[in-house]
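Reviewer 2 asked us to include a model.

Predict the structure of this chain.
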Amino acid sequence: MTRIGFLSFGHWQAVPGSRVRTARDALMQTVELAEAAEEVGADGAFVRVHHFAPQLASPFPLLAAMGVRTTRIELGTAVIDMRYENPLYMAEDAAAADLLSDGRLQLGISRGSPETALRGASSFGYVPAEGETDADMARRHTEIFRAAIGGAGVAQADPQMTGHSGALAIEPRSPGLTERIWWGAGTRATAVWTAEQGMNLMSSTLLTEDTGVPFDELQAEQLSMYRRAWKDAGWEREPRVSVSRSILPIIDDETNRFFGIRSQADAKDQVGYLDGGLARFGRSYIGEPDVIAEELARDAAVQDADTLLVTVPNQLGVDINARMLESIVRDIKPVIDAGRPA
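Predicted model (structure tokens):
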């Protein structure tokens, strides 16, 4: 069965039409949308992390708030830019938020995406070592973070304080969190690396490569390569795999007014240049729920993933997004599941 969750970038802007005008609005409405998503039967509430922009930035206080206001759904990130993170402080925050949600965190992390700041991570105090790239630094932070949440000793004990010597682990720790770490992969090669590291895979609506085939086919190839690499690595547990999609069901006059005119223009993939190379952006799915359902049932990557994250236009407010999520769960999800191979 497909797990359906929403993914919010948490935009806010004081412009006409926006129902999310301040940072407080963005934070409070994200918590409220998580509650509403649980009520309509969705399976997850995820947030994107951006720095130096009017969007959600510090995920763990928000995830903790979402955790204490919900009881069932998964709570997560897609994704945290590891260039910016102190891995040990992050390990403490992640464990605390996971404990408050009773083990429901699903943390997506990655090297990050193009951003508004020049060398933004260096403003946080993190600079690649000599000979290291930004991506290398993000992966180094990730290695330390994953070891810390797994209970590795990271600091030497002071015998005068503890009565013993040896390495100390961070506290608190949350059992099982190590298996709920995902890497956001933008290429097929990065997906293979993710499998080799034993992390779950997140793949978004953007791939930073292009082979000329439709987006869903290229992404399905990425997922297939990941699964083969996972098997070759000999990991014992089954991995989780998620993909993101822009899904905007037209269910009433209001949604038709907002999205109807976009249904044709956004129905095709886009190819462009990003960070000096070709990138392929996946199409949006806009229209009547039954039409969207049939299209997603033919989407090769959606059919191969166990989790589908729906990017939401959060600036339109909680009510409209909750109604669209309800339609996706009720009208679209069963058709997607029916299209899966037995």
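The domain at 3-179+238-270+279-338 is CATH 3.20.20.30 (TIM Barrel). The CA atoms of residues 128 and 137 lie 6 Å apart. We have added this to the supplementary material.
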